[in-house]
Write a structure and sequence with these properties.
alpha+beta; Trna Endonuclease, Chain: A, domain 1; six-stranded mixed sheet; two-stranded antiparallel ribbon; 12 strands; about 25% helix; globular
């Protein structure tokens, strides 16, 4: 039961996430963090729109067009890109519900090629992986991921590999996924804190 200030009582309901919304919590938290970075002149990083081709539109009334059929034009690259400290930043964000490993099929070959091209051209490329059951979010340098794939024939990355080889991303109320703290340590050899706390 939830007790409201006016004395009203309501039963609390638990909402289960569908698989289609998996990853939305992480994306939402990254978007909040990115807005903080933008508002405080720290970085300009945005979620990339997914390129689609609209096939059919329904116009029930003039002011309310509704897309009824569309398809993806090309495979999207990664989720986010932007600029920080004069460097191009590009990354993919994924949630994982497994206790033991992250399935490599969650990352597509074209996304790996894209991250590789970013790094070869002097940008910063990485992944943000959240293990939802542990509520732990890891910063994975793309180069470390490539090295794992090259050295292994596994179809998944063990959870223990993340604990041993990746940085846990700091969490705060105003920056729920403060990944730039890790970027500072890994790429700029700064202490870690982003400006404005």
């Amino acid at each position: 039961m939830v007790n409201y200030p006016n004395g009203m009582k309501k039963k609390a309901t638990v909402q289960l996430r569908s698989t289609s919304n998996r990853g939305m919590d992480l994306e939402h938290e990254i978007n909040i963090t990115n807005q903080y970075y933008l508002d405080n002149d720290i970085a300009v990083i945005y979620k990339k729109p997914t390129p689609i081709t609209i096939v059919k539109v329904d116009y029930p009334k003039r002011s309310a067009a509704k897309i009824t059929e569309a398809y993806f034009q090309i495979p999207s690259t990664t989720d986010y890109n932007g600029i920080y400290e004069g460097k191009y930043v590009d990354f993919e964000a994924k949630e994982c519900s497994s206790r033991t490993s992250f399935p490599l099929k969650s990352i597509h070959a074209h996304q790996l090629r894209h991250l590789d091209a970013i790094i070869k051209n002097g940008g910063i490329g990485f992944l943000i992986i959240r293990f939802t059951l542990y509520n732990e979010t890891y910063f994975v340098k793309a180069m470390d991921l490539f090295a794992f794939i090259k050295a292994n024939t596994r179809k998944s990355i063990p959870y223990t590999w993340f604990k041993e080889n990746c940085d846990l991303i700091p969490v705060s109320y105003i920056k729920p996924v403060d990944y730039l703290q890790v970027v500072n340590r890994e790429y700029f050899k700064k202490g870690g804190e982003t400006s404005n706390g």
